[in-house]
UniProtKB/TrEMBL annotation, chain A:
It is found in: Cytoplasm; Lysosome membrane; Nucleus. GO terms for biological process: cellular response to amino acid starvation; negative regulation of autophagy; positive regulation of TORC1 signaling; response to amino acid. GO terms for molecular function: enzyme binding; GDP binding; GTP binding; GTPase activity; molecular adaptor activity; protein dimerization activity. The keyword Lyase does not apply. It comes from the Eukaryota. Pfam families: Gtr1_RagA (PF04670). Its main location: cytoplasm. PANTHER family: GH16429P, RAS-RELATED GTP BINDING RAG/GTR YEAST. This is Ras-related GTP-binding protein C. GO terms for cellular component: cytosol; Gtr1-Gtr2 GTPase complex; lysosomal membrane; nucleoplasm. It comes from Drosophila madeirensis. Keywords: Cytoplasm, GTP-binding, Hydrolase, Lysosome, Membrane, Nucleotide-binding, Nucleus. It catalyses: GTP + H2O = GDP + phosphate + H(+).
Automatic annotation (TrEMBL), chain B:
One of its GO terms (cellular component) is GATOR2 complex. Residues 465-499 have a biased composition (Polar residues). It comes from Drosophila madeirensis. Belongs to the WD repeat WDR24 family. GO terms for biological process: cellular response to amino acid starvation; positive regulation of macroautophagy; positive regulation of TORC1 signaling. CDD domains: mRING-H2-C3H3C2_WDR24, WD40. It comes from the Eukaryota. WD repeats lie at residues 101-143, 144-179, 188-222. The lineage of its organism: Eukaryota, Metazoa, Ecdysozoa, Arthropoda, Hexapoda. Keywords: Metal-binding, Repeat, WD repeat, Zinc, Zinc-finger. Residues 461-499 are annotated as: Disordered. GO terms for molecular function: zinc ion binding. This is GATOR2 complex protein WDR24.
């Protein structure tokens, strides 16, 4: 399960793609089975049948075109899908058909909820969502009993089908009712996040990005690194992407513009597709990967590999790219800093020591911050 | 008083700017910038640079800056690494940074001082918390957990001491009481995208929010928050700021795409009231100069600081059309325009002046409404006066002919073959004119021109003759066109904006309903020349094809005005493109329908591509059919002979027309004409109409059913031969059997003749049989 032993190229489907049975994979889900798996966020995707889970999974992780998801068959039994081969994010997707009571004894909730960091509940916005809300409430209560640190995310899905006004209305309504449900159950302290999503635009990627970001303990450090890297390199906006899923695990603190994000996503697609055609290597994405796209509005898209899973995509003005050497140097500093941040985490896990990791992160950060500043 | 537009360049771009309490100093903060400038009438002067020296520090890279509301020396910044610092610019060197709060885990987005308690400031951060600091202590006083991803903006309410609002990236707005840190007072979802900014109205209890969903929303915060106004902008909203001393004005700047600063009147949410377009990159900070509503300061990613005077702003709202025109069902036109300040310029007034002699005019002042721009508008309603419809009058035109008379007359007199197309057209146009069908007349003339002399080669020689013929008129028009003519045209063809337009429509409908005279327009589709504001031209053109064609097709149709407009527009351009290029340039540039892009292309390409009239003829025919004149449409198609294949019309449609027309002819008992039409048809299904059985079945006199048996006098249902008997003598009829279709009784024809000579009713049932 660690990412050292996986050998699937980033752009291909995992070989065991398909629905593995629950028992086969059960053991592998054990939390803390390896040190490295801990560094990956683990997400559970739930929701009533036909709410769009499989479509989300296919679109986000298997590069399926949204239109093709129409032909996906509905998943009729509890199925589990692992997506942990090539992505920074570790996913497990659970389908909950309406008729199956997951409180039944065969359902090992300790194991399921114990190891996961976030529970994504998908609600079909176009459908009547009463049943979904009931199911959601039960799930939350059950999961919260097992694991109190779990983050609950609600995807109000398929919003492409409803108007702007009703988007807000349904968000408000679902928010209100689910909060009421939870406070009735005496669980006021549970915090729910809501996202309006659709597979036909990038909102699903953005929502996933936000979910994943909550599960990354190093996020403030990553953000800070980006915040330092950007002004010193004359970059407008930068995203740290998970290459396979095209979700961003960190970005600088300036507001995310949808169009910019979409551009960067598309760039990753282009780079992966081209390099899997022309690359002599076995993998399409490796340490040499970098790409430069000039847009006709005097802006430049610049992609660099950070590590096996991550790529940095920047958008900057053409005139600032004159100093490419500086940018590249800053980038190397940035990449080293990031790998140190993750290594630190790994080392900490392995040694099981309780050293204050934030402090150490800050050290790395400051050192590299100064490096970058010196160059400019 | 007029301010000079002042600007100053800075190194590195600014993320925010803030004005000190006495409005004398501006603080500008950016990623590598923190400076204080003083403002006077001559421009900006740098007072203090807080980032001097080598002490480059992350906590200097600011996202937001705020001045203390009491002390003119104190300001606070929020840094990208989450540090909130307080500065005193009167001190020197490193001591300028008085306090550093390193408490936020992630980027601090916003910071603000309390309006009356000078020691309190709050900051909002990406980590979803809001922290409240007292500058007398070095720790935060309170932390408020917003339970959202990221707090983008916080603002103290000017109306309540301890209340502040916080907006966050999940689209919610929260209202907090400073003293209650555990739970927010009010929380509601305001936008379906991240909310980036908010601002309290200075006098009313309103909160404006701006979001990534490109909307600015104004919420009434009394009691349960209610949405008051929504403004749709073209780009992601970055900052909003209420304009002092103006209740309904709010300034906004965008985060991407749009570099301008817009000042909106919230009651007119579609067009900015004023815009400042000086910046060459995205505007990042705006502030009104104290209570001066005429002076706006802004900073931008182009690294400049601007002071804008309101007099210099462009006013998009003024350039918008304050006119609206609409067509009524009966060919009436109603026209609304704003009269107050632009009255001398707008088309409405000049229009009515020139046209007042032509038409009946009714004027009604629209009652003052909530829509503030409408209370000075005026509505005219033009009705058609036949005498000025632009056609030479026939003697019969004094009294409108009955529709069916026209139909029958046309059906008899229109000819479909047997002559050359040109002669056909000429003849038919005369016929149409005679019966008052001016559209049809025009169409026939048009066909004559284009298809007449040489069947399939309309292009060049025809068009040249056509343009020559038009030349005098064109020139005349070109010279006569007053400077505001194109504007009028475009005014009329465009909508003004949602509200006014809507209002116009409503008024329209209302007036139409209580106007009994409107009905008079039914029979005669008007060719009111008034609309085009070309009355003077029209009056000179007597019976010219094209002008009429235009008028006719635009204004007759209750249907598709856009389609009809496309027709004359192209037309107009083809003419214009021909000989007088210099005129064309000015002329067509502003010529009306903006939704016909091809128009522009045609005239720009020097060798004019062959103009194919087929599409337009087809459109014209469709239009005729739509207004109920299938007769002309079909006659045209038949007359065109083989040329009809050029028209892009579907066979099914033509077939439908055939059936309709034949049906109509049958109804008027024009059997011969119907037969001729059927014979001329090239469609099998139509031709078959003539080959059907002509058998007519009698009905049973008792039950009224059709006797469709082989034996024509035996009713299956009644099992009787009653209907075979003469109803006068009671004997079975052999030979000629006369029969009334109304009551199904009949008998010997000679008996019935005798009988009906004395009686008028049926001998059997008393039905009023009409024996002739």
């Amino acid at each position: 399960m660690s990412y050292d032993d996986d050998d699937y190229p980033a752009d291909t489907f995992p070989k065991d793609f398909g629905y593995g049975t629950y028992n086969q994979d059960g053991l592998e889900m054990e939390p803390n089975s390896t040190g490295s798996s801990e560094t990956k966020p683990r997400i559970l995707l739930m929701g009533l049948r036909r709410s769009g889970k499989s479509s989300i999974q296919k679109v986000v992780f298997h590069k399926m075109s949204p239109n093709e998801t129409l032909f996906l068959e509905s998943t009729s039994k509890i199925v589990k899908d692992d997506i942990n081969n090539s992505s920074f994010v570790q996913f497990q997707i659970w389908d909950f058909p309406g008729q199956i009571d997951f409180i039944e004894p065969t359902f090992d909730s300790d194991m399921i909820f114990g190891g996961c960091g976030a529970l994504v509940f998908v609600i079909d916005a176009k459908d009547d969502y009463n049943e979904a809300l009931t199911k959601f409430k039960n799930t939350v209560i059950k999961a919260y009993k097992v694991n109190q640190r779990i983050k609950f995310e609600v995807f109000i899905h398929k919003v492409d089908g409803i108007s702007d006004d009703s988007k807000m209305e349904s968000q408000r309504d679902i928010h209100q009712r689910s909060s009421d449900d939870l406070s009735e159950a005496g669980l006021n302290q549970i915090h729910l996040s809501f996202h309006l999503t659709s597979i036909y635009d990038h909102s699903i990627f953005e929502a996933f990005s936000k979910v994943v970001q909550k599960l990354i303990p190093q996020l403030p450090t990553l953000e800070n690194l980006l915040n330092i890297f950007i002004p010193n390199s004359g970059i407008e906006k930068a995203f740290l992407f998970d290459v396979v899923s095209k979700i961003y695990i960190a970005t600088d603190s300036s507001p995310v513009d949808m169009q910019t994000y979409e551009l960067c996503c598309d760039m990753i697609d282009v780079v992966i597709d081209l390099s899997s055609i022309y690359s002599s290597e076995e993998t399409a994405f490796d340490s040499g990967s970098s790409s430069l796209i000039k847009l006709n509005n005097n802006t430049i898209l610049y992609l660099r590999e950070v590590n096996k899973f991550l790529a940095l995509v920047c958008i900057l003005r053409e005139e600032n790219f004159n100093r490419q050497g500086v940018i590249d140097y800053n980038f190397i500093c940035f990449r080293d800093a990031i790998s140190e941040v993750f290594e630190l985490r790994l080392r900490q896990k392995q040694l099981e020591n309780n050293e204050d990791e934030d402090l150490a992160d800050e050290h790395t950060l400051m050192r590299h911050g100064n490096d970058a500043a010196v160059v400019t | 008083m007029r301010f000079p537009d002042a600007r100053i360049c800075m190194e590195g771009h600014a993320n925010a700017l803030a004005l000190s309490k006495d409005n004398a100093l501006i603080a500008v903060a950016g990623r590598s910038l923190l400076k204080v400038y003083s403002i006077d009438d001559y421009g900006f002067r740098e007072v203090c640079n807080m980032r001097g020296g080598k002490n480059q520090n992350l906590s200097y890279s600011s996202n937001d800056v705020a001045w203390s509301t009491m002390d003119c020396n104190l300001l606070a910044t929020a840094a990208t690494n989450g540090v909130v610092s307080v500065w005193d610019h009167s001190k020197c060197g490193r001591q300028k940074q008085v306090l550093v709060y390193n408490e936020h885990e992630r980027t601090a987005h916003t910071v603000t001082f309390h309006s009356s308690e000078p020691n309190i400031l709050i900051s909002g951060s990406q980590d979803g918390t809001i922290k409240c600091f007292d500058i007398r202590s070095d720790k935060s006083v309170n932390t408020y957990f917003s339970n959202s991803e990221s707090v983008r903006d916080v603002k103290f309410s000017p109306h309540a001491q301890n209340i502040f609002s916080a907006v966050s990236e999940n689209g919610t707005v929260q209202l907090w009481d400073m003293r209650k840190w555990d739970k927010c007072m009010v929380q509601f979802t305001a936008h379906y995208g991240p909310v980036y900014t908010c601002d309290w109205h200075p006098t009313r209890n309103w909160l404006a929010t701006g979001s990534r969903d490109k909307q600015i929303k104004v919420w009434d915060m009394d009691g349960r928050p209610g949405l008051e106004y929504t403004i749709h902008t073209i780009a992601v909203v970055g900052r909003v700021k209420w304009r002092p001393e103006r209740t309904y004005h709010i300034a906004s700047c965008a985060l991407v795409v749009d570099y301008s600063i817009h000042v909106w009147d919230i009651r007119r949410p579609y067009i900015p009231f004023a815009s400042f377009n000086e910046h060459t990159n995205v505007t990042t900070g705006i502030a009104w100069l104290g209570n001066d509503s005429h002076c706006l300061l802004s900073t931008s990613k182009d690294s400049t600081l601007h002071k804008h005077a309101f007099e210099d702003a462009t006013r998009p709202a003024l350039k918008a059309n304050a006119q609206g025109a609409s067509l009524g069902r009966y060919g009436d036109i109603s026209f609304a325009n704003k009269i107050k300040e632009y009255a001398p310029k707008t088309s409405g007034v000049s229009n009515t002046k020139t046209s007042s002699s032509f038409i009946n005019r009714r004027k009604s002042i629209v009652a003052g409404s909530i829509q503030f721009h409408l209370d000075h508008s005026r509505m005219y309603k033009f009705m058609v006066k036949d005498a000025f419809s632009g056609f030479p009058l026939n003697e019969s035109d004094s009294k409108p002919r009955q529709e069916h008379e026209c139909f029958i007359g046309c059906a008899r007199e229109l000819i479909m073959s047997g002559k050359k197309l040109a002669e056909l057209c000429e003849h038919n146009s005369e016929v149409s004119k005679k019966y008052g069908r001016h559209n049809a007349t025009t169409l026939w003339n048009f066909l004559k021109l284009f298809y007449g002399s040489n069947h399939f080669e309309p292009p060049f020689e025809h068009r040249s003759s056509f343009s020559n013929q038009k030349n005098p008129i064109n020139q005349r028009r070109a010279t006569q066109v007053p400077s505001d003519w194109p504007q009028q045209r475009s005014d009329l063809s465009q909508d003004l904006n949602g509200n006014a337009q809507e209002a116009t429509h409503e008024i329209d409908a209302a007036n139409e309903d209580d106007d009994p005279l409107g009905g008079s327009g039914v029979e005669h589709p008007p060719t009111s020349s008034v609309i085009l504001s070309e009355t003077q031209i029209i009056s000179e053109i007597n019976f010219d094809n094209f002008e009429l064609l235009r008028n006719g097709f635009i204004y007759v149709g209750p249907t598709d005005a856009a389609k009809a407009l496309a027709f004359p527009a192209l037309h107009h351009d083809v003419q214009a493109a021909r000989p007088q290029l210099e005129i064309k340039a000015s002329d067509h540039e502003k010529s009306p329908p903006p939704h016909v892009p091809t128009v522009l292309k045609v005239s720009h390409v020097p060798p004019i591509p062959m103009w194919e009239p087929h599409k337009f003829v087809a459109d014209a025919l469709m239009l005729l059919n739509d207004v109920g004149d299938v007769q002309t449409a079909l006659t045209v198609i038949i007359s065109l002979g083989e040329a009809r294949k050029l028209l892009p019309l579907e066979d099914t449609l033509v077939e439908h027309w055939f059936h309709t027309y034949v049906d109509q002819l049958h109804r008027y008992e024009l059997w011969n004409e119907a037969c001729e039409v059927i014979n001329r048809s090239w469609l099998r299904s139509v031709q078959q109409l003539n080959q059907q059985s002509t058998a007519m079945h009698t009905n049973c006199g008792d039950c009224g059913r059709q006797l469709s048996n082989k034996v024509g006098w035996y009713c299956d249902k009644c099992k009787s031969m009653q209907s075979a008997k003469c109803c006068v003598c009671g004997l079975i009829v052999r030979g000629v059997y006369a029969w009334c279709q109304g009551c199904s009784h009949g008998g010997h024809i000679e008996h019935l003749q005798k009988y009906f000579a004395k009686h008028s009713k049926c001998p059997k049932c008393g039905h009023l049989c009409a024996y002739s």
